[in-house]
Amino acid sequence: MAGLAESGSNPDVDLLYDINGLAKDAPGWFDRVMEFVGEYGLLLAIVLLVVWCWWTVRRRGDEDAASSVAALVWAPLAAGIAVLVNVPIRGFVERPRPFLDHQGLEVLVSGKTDYSFVSDHATIVMAMAVGLFVAHRKFGLVALVLAVFGGFIRVYMGVHYPTDVVGGFALGTAVALLLSPVAMALLTPVVRAVERSPRVGWLVRGRGRGAGDGEGAVIPGARREQASERDLAA
């Protein structure tokens, strides 16, 4: 698999040079911004989206808020599991970072010595984005756009091939979706128990709230049928 990176004539490498070439033409301050966004900013943004979605769900006080909160808990857990799954994949493929095999790249982050395929960053942000989409469609769509942009930035930074990013997207999506039924079966009863607690029940549903609108949720039973019809009509 490491041989995939050796030829400078394959589309993967050509696209790498095309995207990374944008960094050479950009001002230095812009590259520094992209470096921060690619390393930390987008991941932080998706985490904040998860927190915002949680706050919205608990504030509305939907009668099945526990299902949506359980799905939100699953989003970061899915990202963690996907990264663990990626450990043996990286060790098996052993694909070097692109700047080790190709000259003339504008590398915005130095010191990357681990293997390139699959991208951990792409895996994490996509797993969280898909997990968030499972919990709430509208928040999830925003997260998915951010995740795709994050993958683009990893190539822009010169630290990953495009196929590293695509592989990360596929891995994150697979883990978040395929394990979601098991995760929900395990997490939902726990969250319901938390909801019934007089001390920490506010983590699931705001006190004094009745069954809320729940618009945007896609977990089965997480919103009323009327809200579901409005969302589909939109």
UniProtKB/TrEMBL annotation:
Residue ranges of domain Phosphatidic acid phosphatase type 2/haloperoxidase in the record: 69-180
UniProt membrane topology term: Multi-pass membrane protein
Main localization category: membrane
Transmembrane intervals: 40-57, 69-89, 115-134, 141-159, 165-187
Keyword rRNA-binding: no
Biased composition regions of type Basic and acidic residues, renumbered to the chain: 222-234
Protein name (Swiss-Prot/TrEMBL): Phosphatase PAP2 family protein
